[in-house]
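**Archive record**
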Amino acid sequence: MTREFSAGGVVVRQMRGRWWLAAIEPAGRSAARGKAVLALPKGLVDPGEKPEQTALREVQEETGLATTLVVKLGDIKYVYARSWAGGERVFKVVSFYLLRYESGKLGEIAPEMQVEVGGAEWIPLDDAPGRLAYKGEREIAAKALEYMRRNPNLRGPE
């Protein structure tokens, strides 16, 4: 079985007195009943790159945001079958990091990234564990929410 290693970020930003999370809508993912499929930005760890670097890079590429690393939240692990390569099964590990927003406008991404990302939106961090499409990512969002409740003084640009 092939192994893949990816990393991604939970970007948080304080606006209007509450914490918000940057979620993406993967391109080509349609949802039932017109609801957006929301996910966390992530991607493959490049050769020679550390997962933390991957998380920062992927977040910037997929959201348009510059961020700062706060803490590792955890890993999710799963097996999937590739839709190419004869349905080869892949064991995947995705490391997620809590990232603090620094600058940028959500959704302003390079044209070549628009084949991967159909859109992006800020959602209340409190709502994220119930709104993200994938179980493992919902669990990571819950960890981010728990971290922010324990560390309410995490400061970032308003």
Observations:
- The chain has one domain: 2-150.
- The chain has a mean pLDDT of 91.
